[in-house]
Please model this.
Amino acid sequence: MSDAPSHAPEKSILPSWVKGPQDFIGGLALVAIAAFALWASSDLQGMHGFSFGAGTAPRMFGILLLGLGAAVTVVGIFTEGPGLSKFHWRGPFFVALAILVFAVGIRPMGMIFAAMSSFLIAALGTPETRWKETIIVGACLTGFCALLFPYALGLPLQMWPTFLIR
Amino acid sequence: MKLFNRRVAISGLAAVAGFGALATTVQAQEYPTRNITMIVPFAAGGPTDVIARIVAADMSKTLGQQIIIENVVGAGGTTGATRAARAANDGYTIITGHMGTHAAAVPLYPKLAYHPEKDFEPVALLAGTPILILAKKDFAPKDLKEFVTYVKANSDKLNMAHAGVGSVSYSSCELLSSVLDIKPTGVPFNGTGPAMNALVGGQVDYMCDQIVNAVPQIKGGTIKAYAIATPDRNPSLPDVPTTIEAGLPKYQASAWNAIFAPKGTPAAITAKLNAAAAKALDDENVKKRLLDLGSDIPKPEARTQAALGSLVKSEVEKWSAVLKPAM
Amino acid sequence: MGDLFSNLGLGFSTVFQFVQWTPAFLGGMSIPLPINILLCLIGALVGTLVGVLPGIGTIATVAMLLPITFGLPPVGALIMLAGIYYGAQYGGSTTSILVNIPGEAGSVVTALDGFQMAKQGRAGPALAIAAIGSFFAGCVATVLIAVLGAPLTKLALAFGPAEYFSLMVLGLIFAVVLAKGSVLKAIAMIVFGLLLSMVGSDIETGASRMSFNIPELADGLGFATVAMGLFGFAEIIRNLDAGGEEDRQLVQQKVTGLMPTKKDLKDSAPAILRGTVLGSILGILPGGGAVIASFAAYTLEKKLSKDPKRFGRGAIEGVAAPESANNAAAQTSFIPLLTLGIPPNAVMALMVGAMTIHGIVPGPQVMQKQPELVWGMIASMWIGNLMLLVINLPMVGIWVRLLRVPYRLMFPSIVVFCSIGIYSVNNAPMDVVLAGVFGLLGYWLIKHDFEPAPLLLGMVLGPLMEENLRRALLISRGDATVFFTRPLSATLMAISAFLLILAVLPALRKKRDEVFVESES
Model:
């Protein structure tokens, strides 16, 4: 998938004949995605007789996206457009980490642990966080979820770590 | 919380400390001491889910612990079955699988992450929903004999609907084609609902599907049924002949549903579950609700764990001969 | 007509059924309780509260709450489920407007202008107009079902694969019009969405496509997962960029009235009317009609507006029209279920499941055999809509107050709620990871000025389009002219062509206008 934020080139890297860097890079990324999709669906069967194969539609859309990506790139070269926006790492990093920790933790560690740690990690994403308040709200939220999902909604969510239950 | 139940806490400590065997014996005798999760690998409200819920409700009463249904949907039920196969074999995770997940999936998905025989213990056969041969209401043939001749003669012109590769409808349609030795144009739909809609609307000519989905349409006269693919007629459709009566005895199909446990679940536990399921099937209320759905309730001799084991074996063989891999 | 009234009378008498309640603490005194109305109210309330949770869409809400109706008598259970369904839908719209997280395809469009209104401090009027529009649409659609339910069924049956394909083509053209920026980039996003929708197993052969042996991808990317990532998580990440907090504080200070002004009402009235008509018609079509209802309505408003540029920047019509259409479609999508017994979409399939669990097998005869059920449900639809209005107008103030929670506390809560929500739909941790990946992708898209809405719509329409195209070609044995020889399909294609021309013409004219403006300044 495109995790472009990390390797988005700085403005200075692009040659001066690129008038709209935002579209230029955006278009190129679409071309890359399309090429990847075409590669990923290359093992699928194509048309057989009058009927579509499994690979027909993915290939059709892949080629279409390739063309459109190229068109966006060309527009980026020839039309005056906005420069690249600045990417920040702190927000994306900690939010992504919080989500990941939740996903990895929910099965073995149960919801209480996963929700609380995910909340605290996400809070690292901004310098404005005041820890005392965050911990209190996080605990309340976790408690609320621990009541809401299994009891009020009757979802089979595991609350505590597996090794404690067994 | 259950956490503070001493027995559970002790057996939990034992397991952690490595006294697995001891813990298992304790668990088998006391079983069940907490809620049991039953995975249903299909959406809530589908035929398998309905049957599982009706039976599980009664089993919960017998076992004295709640059976909680967890719907894990995906890939023709194999996502949920895979999860059940990998679950702890302590009897607290069981699955209600069916003809698709525990038989037809073997030939359909060569990369299947489990094997119905090697990765599961058979627990209890619940109820089957018979398969019907259905057609749009103005389809020319009058009975099954005419249908067979007509479909054989016109197989390149006719459209057969099915509910998507991996569905019961797909497998039973393929079985029909193999019995009739024809290769019709199969039109795939996304589930039984849309396929039925197309049949009622006359967009397609015929299909095979489970009785539950078809009874109201047949009674309402919007489609017609040629035969039912079980040895006996069904009380909800007494006028529909069996395939044996109507001259196509080789076509036998029923979407059976059954409870399985992960391989290695102690025999004492599976026996307890089997007994609870058998008791549920004898309950008048459960029986009535299952019959209302048009399902078949297994006879006592078919309810044993051994009988279910051999059913799975024969079904895997049967479908392996009919179905080709879906790549 | 007399029949109609007696039928509706039967329906309302079912809904208004009183049950004598004799609680022990009253010492034998009994209180008459309007049990079905209470169930409807509880359903709508619970549905709204669950639907509001980000990460849980309509289908997930109904699936989650389905088991609580199992213990009730059949009619009561179904009435309650109908309440849950409307509540969930309205709850989803609330989340779209307040935090820009659509839970289903229909709310994507609501989020476009609704969230902009919220940013301008007009969340109150946006929420109120959504409730009012939905109520009006609900009333009209209820009458429509009662009067024309049976004949309209024929329309549902006349729609074959060829017609659906043409309808989806029309849908794609609507999606282009949604864009507020570059048309080229919008089309690129639609195609990107179509490509993403190809992930999963192929319906005809079962072959797995682009799923890289990840079992969670075997059935494709879930709409909620992608929407949560592209809208929810991406929006959070973007807000965390420097300056986010100041923006939010500005919003909180700007909150003006809670209720729509006279001008708002005047602006939205025709939009609500048109949305209702479009939604009612499209909702009848099983398998995809309702999906395109809300954005068809949005497109229509944008095309009719004297100042289309306001759309996507907080136009109240942009909330009123899709919300009315969505609710009307939700209502009329009951028609195929009630008259044929065939569920037209996933939510209705759940309803059928609920009916079978209660021993009612829906089918073509259910109208004759269990009239109190069918008419009770029709009547309860109207009651359900009324409940929504009663519950939600007072709640607007509470929801708007939620926006005052400091963002530094709000965003971690949204992250946790979304994660639990996504996880609980399939109990799959991988879905949560995927939503995170789409969050990063969405952040990147925002930075490059690509709009996520057309991508999502492409994703919803992709499978419907491909499947119906393939079905149509299978049935016609490869003859592509079916799309133009079948009258309904041909009509839809003609409308598509007409809209395309309309969409292209102003684009050309606009270029001239812009040149003109520049030279003048």
About this structure: The two ends of chain C are 64 Å apart (CA to CA).
